[in-house]
């Protein structure tokens, strides 16, 4: 993208729009010089940067910085006033809720329409149709007109179509903040698959945490200008300075202007629902916390069952108090004898970052042999040092195959849990390091 600017006409009153349409022609016919009935608003000014194939680029900036305008220009749904954009390959975008969908048509009809607009042949559509419907997971609504959909259903369908067309470039604008955490996790997992296949991803987010987790590089826009481009970490640090800089300073407004960004860089979308004072006595089991992104790498040797968290009293829980002890447990049924066996666990963030893991035995001291037909109940007792947010659990069994240790079975995102908020807590980020701050006035 080179020297891209976008100017929107801004009319003081609706009638000016009509005047602008009629008057210049009439004035020209009358031999008078044309007059302008609008002000110019430059949403983008002289923006230039490159995105390389297979890269994951974060686009950040405060509200009104020009992020959506930029992405729409990249997708070709807006034309720049000046400058050029050169995009190679198939671009699928999730810019606004259900953009590209016809509200009068059913979900199924929109899949076909949208899929063919994005370049799928009718055979490809036939092959992928069931998979698109399954991924969207809106049972009972696929034959309904999309105008009857909730915004979450709209998004599920739009996301499903976008990822199934196997785009060369995927553009996502805050889309993942719609929907519950299980769905968001599923979307992040799918985005990772696309990324592993070499898809270039442009990801607009207000959440500095998400951008540093999932992006290689980032660009920071402010008031239509490109402030900086570089590694996600450096750009986010500049973005945070901008968010928390004093009113009236060079390119910054007050913190209150900072959209939905939180001081710890993680979006509120990742927090437990409810904005009032959190209650520490709330229920410890939330029926709605069921992962949608579970992936099983199965094998003939063994299978994992009933992975869940328990309190020390043995109650099944999925809403955890900060600082308390819990047990993560699952049962492994062996169908064949196995040697050199170790059991593992891993906690991952919503975006798939591995936060904390453990194994049952140290390397070199595994269970030497496990007999066929054995069942093992694996328990990992741990203290919850995670800060409020939603997390996902993996379970896995490794064993020796010949000389080499290999996964016998692996369950990704087999369970999920939430850590409730503690109004007294001072810790930010993912983990609580039990920091004790002290001050000394000098
Ligand atoms: N059609 C339009 N007509 C006039 N002004 C517009 C139009 N679309 C956007 N703008 C203005 O251009 C600026 C940039 O808008 P844009 O939506 O690109 O920002 P953004 O960074 O995506 O903001 P947000 O984070 O709030 O979504 C804003 O000030 C907005 O009011």
From TrEMBL:
Top-level lineage group: Bacteria
UniProt keyword list: ATP-binding, Nucleotide-binding, Transport
Classification via Pfam families: ABC_tran, Wzt_C
Domain ABC transporter: 24-248
UniProt xrefs under InterPro entries: AAA+_ATPase (IPR003593), ABC_transporter-like_ATP-bd (IPR003439), ABC_transporter-like_CS (IPR017871), ABC_transpr_TagH-like (IPR015860), Bact_Polysacc_Export_ATP-bd (IPR050683), P-loop_NTPase (IPR027417), Wzt_C (IPR029439)
Region spans: Disordered: 248-275
A GO term, aspect molecular function: ATP binding
Family: Belongs to the ABC transporter superfamily.
Protein name: ABC transporter ATP-binding protein
Organism, scientific name: Lysobacter korlensis
């Amino acid at each position: 993208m080179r020297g891209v600017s976008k100017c929107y006409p801004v009319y003081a009153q609706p009638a000016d729009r009509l005047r602008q349409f009629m008057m210049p022609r009439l004035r020209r016919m009358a031999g008078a010089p044309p007059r302008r009935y609008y002000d110019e608003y430059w949403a983008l000014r002289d923006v230039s940067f490159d995105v390389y194939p297979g890269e994951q680029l974060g686009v950040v900036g405060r509200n009104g910085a020009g992020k959506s305008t930029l992405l729409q220009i990249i997708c070709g749904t807006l034309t720049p006033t000046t400058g050029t954009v050169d995009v190679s390959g198939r671009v699928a975008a999730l810019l606004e809720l259900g953009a590209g969908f016809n509200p009068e048509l059913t979900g199924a009809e929109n899949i076909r329409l949208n899929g063919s607009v994005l370049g799928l042949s009718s055979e490809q559509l036939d092959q992928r149709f069931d998979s698109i419907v399954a991924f969207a997971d809106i049972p009972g609504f696929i034959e309904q007109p999309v105008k009857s959909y909730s915004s979450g259903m709209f998004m599920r369908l739009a996301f499903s179509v976008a990822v199934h067309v196997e785009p060369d470039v995927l553009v996502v604008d805050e889309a993942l903040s719609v929907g519950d955490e299980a769905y968001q996790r599923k979307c992040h997992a799918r985005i990772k698959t696309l990324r592993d296949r070499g898809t270039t991803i442009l990801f607009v987010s207000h959440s500095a945490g998400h951008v540093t987790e999932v992006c290689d590089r980032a660009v920071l826009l402010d008031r239509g200008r490109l402030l900086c481009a570089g590694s996600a970490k450096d750009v986010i640090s500049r973005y945070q300075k901008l968010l928390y800089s004093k009113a009236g300073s060079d390119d910054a407004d007050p913190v209150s202007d900072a959209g939905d960004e939180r001081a710890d860089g993680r979006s509120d979308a990742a927090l437990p629902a409810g904005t009032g004072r959190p209650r520490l006595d709330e229920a410890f089991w939330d029926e709605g916390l069921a992962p949608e992104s579970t992936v099983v790498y199965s094998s003939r040797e063994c299978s994992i069952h009933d992975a869940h968290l328990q309190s020390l009293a043995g109650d099944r829980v999925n809403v955890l108090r900060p600082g308390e002890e819990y047990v993560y447990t699952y049962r492994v049924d062996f169908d064949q004898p196995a040697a050199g066996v170790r059991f593992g666990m891993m906690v991952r963030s919503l975006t798939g970052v591995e936060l904390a893991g453990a194994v049952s035995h140290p390397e070199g001291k595994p269970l030497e042999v496990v007999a066929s037909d054995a069942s093992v109940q694996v328990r990992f007792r741990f203290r919850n040092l995670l800060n409020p947010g939603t997390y996902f659990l993996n379970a896995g069994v490794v064993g020796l195959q010949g000389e080499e240790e290999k996964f016998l079975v692996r369950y990704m995102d087999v369970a999920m849990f939430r850590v409730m908020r503690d109004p007294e807590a001072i810790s930010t980020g993912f983990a609580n390091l039990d920091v004790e701050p002290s001050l000394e006035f000098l």
